[in-house]
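Q: I have three molecules that I believe assemble together. Could you output structure tokens for the complex as a whole instead of separate predictions?
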Amino acid sequence: MTEQVVERRGRGFAASIWSWVKLISRDPAGLLGLIIVVAFVLWSIIQGILELLASYLKDPRLGWLLLPYNPFIQNLAGAFQPPSWAHLMGTNYIGQDILSRILYSIPYSAAYPAFLVVLSAILIGAVLGISAGYLGGWWDEVLMRVTDAFLSIPAIILAIVVSVLLKASFIGMIYSFIIVWWPIYARLFRAETLRVKAMDYIAAAQLYGVSPLRLFFRYLFINTIDPIIAYAMLDFGNVILGASILNFIGVGLQPGLPILGEMASDGVSWGFPKYWWWAIFPSITILIIALGFVLLGDRLQDIIGGRAAY
Amino acid sequence: MLLSIKDLFVGYRTVMGTLHVLDDVNLNVDKGEIVGIVGESGSGKSTLGQAIARVLPGNAVASGRIMVDGVNLLELSEGEMEKYRGTTVFMILQNPFTSLNPVKTVGYQLMEAARIRMVRSGERYSEDRAYEMAIQALKDLRFPDPEVIMLRYPHQLSGGQIQRVVLAMSLILKPKILIADEPTSALDVTIQAQVINLFKELSREMESAILFITHDISLAYVISTRIVVLYAGRIMEDGDVESIIREPMHPYTQGLIAGVPDLSKFVSGRVKLQSIPGNPPSFLDLPSGCKFHPRCPYVKDICKVQEPPLTRHNNRVIRCWLYGGG
Amino acid sequence: MGMAPIIKTENLRKYYLAYKIGLLDRLFGKKPAWVRAVDNVSIEIEEGETLGLIGESGSGKTTLGKLLVTLEKPDGGKYYFMGEEVTEDKIPWVRQQVAMVFQNPYSSLNPRMNVKDIVAEPLGHFDEERVREAMEMVGLNYREHGNKRPRELSGGQVQRVAIARAIVKRPRFIVLDEPTSALDASLQAQVLNLLMDLKEELKLTYLFITHNLAVAYYIADRVAIMYAGKVVEYGDVDEVFKKPMHPYTQLLMKSIPTIGRKALEPPTGEVPSLINPPPGCRFNPRCPYAMDICREREPEMLSVDKRKVACWLYK
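A: Yes, here they are, computed for all three components at once.
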């Protein structure tokens, strides 16, 4: 029986974004998540561009154009200052303003790892998962066993091991995360592909001789990606947390640049509890960013999964 | 009058505002009557069933009166309504595979129904008696090995068997009002016929007021004593089954009957099926005046502007300007 | 009516594995069980005719339809398309000339594609002329509907898109799998009439699969009744309906709700298992006329006048 479908009249891309925003905001937690994520993304883009321009144009001042202080300037006289109007989050052991360091580090400390890892994992997972789900047979069996193996080991442990093997650099950490992260996406894509494969429009496409490449992109990928998007949103938070944990124990650092996890680690080792602000503020930042993604991702999963309350 | 619906309105709150679905629904059903509610998808027929059983989704708003035994069901709180579900109002759903609890045996669920029945009638609960009631109900539904079925889980049964189990449940509960929402649509033709026959037999025994919701007018003919035609959330015609089929008054009813492939039409050669031009309207965009006017072959000016009220003509209730309406 | 049969099958068979047999299962000697979806079916469809294939769920009708458009490969028997035996290498050639319309309109169209792209897909490249023509033939407006997504259209419109897609390449043969079952009553007639007009205009041949006898009567020239993977009766539609010979056909007719007749007389029991069908004639457990031989041997297809029946009653 054809069901009466209540549909948004296609009034354009902007309108459909707005109705998503409205839907998400019906839930206060979702709204909070949305605000945090939007703020995080906007800041990462703006600050990220400034940092790139700074290195491209060889003018480092661009990097702290929007920040209260130059995050690298040392001022031993002003070390260990507690939070005040001058330094909203206090200063560290060599007098650097913690707020500025946090803001400076957000793009490459949180945003780049999150997006690089998740997007790569989605790509790899899509290719492997969709082909396994669609083709079945021994290819599917092989993939399932491989992902089983990966998924049976806690992600963080695996990431640590692999990144140490890859020399513990920032890129090494990213690679190790991607290696650890793709299996879950492969499984998600495979499951969705199994559902989509049973649809008549796939049979129709086979009948009309649609090329494999077109079948992959226009029929399979685009119709399986919905739940993955909601999951990915949650996952950004996971990667940020994971990366910060690795940074905390000294893996994946970039010499000379402030890193959120490392700041927290230094603050705990050397400043806790007397100079609590050194450890606490970076940690809270990590927490808030991750939380934002979790809340937003959760709400998105509810909406896409049809559990959303109007 | 067992069930008396007056001025029922049901709408849904959505991101785009409130959708008006059911409007001006006035319907009386007496015990022993089987009313076939005939409507296409988008007619609001399921909403009507859900409104009476008070199982509308969270974003629904309803106003009007659904009177059973002098009580307006719409005014009851959820807690009070609990006592009405099962023995006063019971609903059979379309999809058999989601009707029963998948983790409990058939026996458990039937005995649960028996327990509810006993408690509500003031009888003391006895497990033996509940078991007896369950077995008897399964026998009435022609299960050859009721003791075995009692031990089965829903996933071990076929669609037809599940619907018969649900019917057994309604035999036990003996509800005053039984709503069947497309209970046989998901079943094969021969199984559907078996279930319908059982349904007809049992309805005589149950003395309930039965609302049989379907999109299939031939099926409604076979099972009902009375037919109510629903379109765009409004009752268009309401009358005795034989006369409404033989002499449909409303243009929509006429169009429905003229368009449906039914073997009775082809007795003497093939007759071309007439189709109603256009599509049923979406609730987002209802036409002004009479909701059927864009597709009506007899449309007049007044139809486009003002919605006709429900009026009575001998034994027929009809909503159409062709028949006056004061 | 046409001359030579455009479609001919001889003892066509399609079996499915009832459950997956993995590595461990093989070690324990688990034997495969086969679902006999289509079991020795021999039919012919003449050019320009509409063959109504009638059956309930589990009858094998959808599988047979898929075999005829090569969406499934047979496990046994032969399939002849336009006189040529269809072997692996002939499949692309067959696919050039056939199309299929599916039951559920919404799941047969890619929800993330526009109507005009959907209709153009069989062509392999976008040809506005032909897409526009196909859409107009089914009563859709290219400008109004072309850029819409399936979910923005009503059920009837979506099915028209599916039909437009099926005819855009001017196929010779179309398999329609319950194309109106999921549609509202008031739209069924529209779509059935459209299909009949298109058949005349484009000189098509149809296999029309349905469980609804009245629809089959309306649209078909000949009908084949399927039960549990086999064809049990096969003949001219007027004759089969006026004088059904096979007991299953007779009981089927008495199970359909028909205006003017309040009583239904269905067969008892359920459709048999396709993995372990009853011995002999598959219908014998439910047949009111079952004889001993029915329980022992499967009946062959017997010719009675121009009718074919698989039933010992007519030997």
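A: One point stands out. Residues 22-70+90-304 of chain A form a domain with the MetI-like fold fold (CATH 1.10.3720.10).
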